Amino acid sequence: MSPGTEADAATSKGVMTTRVPALLVMHADLASALLRAAERVTGPFDDVTVLSNDGLSGPELERRIEEAVAGWAHGGLVLTDFWGGSCHICGSAALRGHGEIALLTGINLPVLIDYLHNRDRYGVDELAERLSRKGQESIRVQHGRAQ
Amino acid sequence: MSWMTQRVDDRLIHGQVVIAWGERLRPDRIVIADDAAASNDWERDLLTSAAPGVNVRVLTVTEAAAEHGAEAQRAGGAFLLMRDLETALTLVELGARIPVLTLGGLHYAPGKDKISDYVYLDEADRRAARSLIARGVRLEVQDVPASRPQPLESLDPALRTA
């Protein structure tokens, strides 16, 4: 992507920001499929971890999320598919005591792409707010037209 | 009407409960019988916020047993969720009437045998299962409404020969 777009106004220029890491926790193969789809749009990227809840008990899913975020020195984002699912519930449980990590639900492709474009420009909280807004804005209705 | 489903699932509230069963049966209430969750403010708050539009209560097993009969008489429908078979057995021993217990998810852990894709049992689970069956509880393996419920004994030879 080209630097210097809308995000500049919100960025403290000249201040180095640390990349915000992300863990995608979703049902079935959704996280890895979203990642592949995002790569089609943005080109290859790294530093995103994926985890499926397939076949995992609640405690085991929680343990694996804890393990995946344990190395995050400056926090990060846990991105999950829907509110009330085990990815959200176990993710929230795994983040007890991790105030520097934020969890989002309802992640779609536009949100993931926006994350990839902005993960080096914002801190965890600002990025979480931005992605929440982007996700809500990304769903629009377009009607067909009668001729 | 009240109890619409009484379910054992190590994930307690999750997508299959909230979405698959929730959209099909439209419960007014979800009761979670779990001593650990009931004694932890943080976990209780998380679970009670997990199913928007449904009243979720997290009770100790003793509290849930005490309320079980009254809840069965209430208007509207409710789900009962428990983490394991031992909890279900304790509820039944304390007087809860559970004619059918759905095994929706008891996932793999070391020492557990595979019974189905989402049910794994060890000897302690089987002891609880046998006691429940002896008390007249029908144990059915079923994750979502669209899948066919199967009697646990038909999937686990160790229960049949016991």
How would you describe the overall organization of this protein?
The complex is a heterodimer of chains A (147) and B (162). With 147 residues, chain A is of the alpha/beta class. Chain A has one domain (19-121): Phosphotransferase system, mannose-type IIA component (Rossmann fold, 3-Layer(aba) Sandwich), CATH 3.40.50. Chain A contains 5 helices and 4 strands. A 4-stranded parallel beta sheet of chain A has the order 2-1-3-4, with helices on both faces. In chain A, α1 crosses α4, α2 packs across α3 and α4 (109-118) packs antiparallel against α5 (124-138). The longest helix of chain A is centred in the C-terminal third of the chain and has 15 residues, at 124-138. Chain A is globular, with a radius of gyration of 16 Å. Mean pLDDT of chain A is 90; it is low at 1-14. By secondary structure, chain B is α/β, with parallel strands linked by helices. Chain B has one domain: Fructose Permease (3-Layer(aba) Sandwich). Chain B has 8 helices and 9 strands. In chain B, the strands form 2 sheets. In chain B, strands 3-2-4-1-5-8-9 form a 7-stranded mixed beta sheet. In chain B, α4 (61-73) packs across α5 (85-93) and α5 (85-93) runs parallel beside α6. Chain B is globular, with a radius of gyration of 15 Å.
